[in-house]
Specification:
CATH architecture of one domain: Sandwich
Distance between the termini: 102 Å
Oligomer: single chain
Structural class: mainly beta
Largest sheet: 4 strands, antiparallel
Strand content: 35-45%
CATH class of one domain: Mainly Beta
CATH superfamily of one domain: Immunoglobulins
Number of helices: 1
Length: 146
């Protein structure tokens, strides 16, 4: 009985050294913003946490035109900005991104939406009637005047 009590006291008074365990995990999703837009491009910027132990190996940008199919573009892990080019004038786009490392991909970032500048590819106008009673109708399809 006396021996058990002594053992309990030794355990209670013992000094334990903390142990650090590294558990590999995917990176945290970057914070994504649209900084600029033109008629055919969006400038994306993001902030991401950096880790020396589990470095980000790259980013995947996912984007789509409203009601369109998702497309993706991979980018360098050392950059924090990207121009998405070749977009449609005056169109709404949704964009999100993920980061990945040797363990896997992060959860997706918050989806951001942005509008390219311009009137879009399908618009028309009806100017005022000419004095002769004739009307002129112009239609723009795909950026050209018919």
């Amino acid at each position: 009985m006396q021996g058990m009590k002594k053992e309990r006291e030794e355990i209670a008074n013992a000094h334990f050294n903390p142990v650090s365990i590294d558990i590999p995990v995917p990176p945290i999703a970057p914070e994504l913003l649209v900084r600029n837009s033109t008629s055919s491009a969006l400038e994306l910027v993001w902030m991401a946490l950096r880790s020396r132990r589990q470095p980000v190996l790259g980013y995947t940008v996912n984007f789509r035109r409203e009601h369109g199919d998702w497309r993706r573009r991979d980018t360098d892990p050392l950059t924090d900005a990207l121009w998405l080019e070749g977009l449609v004038c005056g169109a709404n786009y949704s964009v999100y991104m993920t980061a990945y490392n040797h363990v896997g991909a992060s959860l997706p970032s918050t989806i951001v939406t942005a509008l390219t500048q311009g009137r879009g590819e399908n618009w028309f106008f009806l100017p005022a009637a000419k004095p002769s009673g004739h009307r002129t109708v112009g239609v723009v399809v795909g950026g050209g005047l018919l």
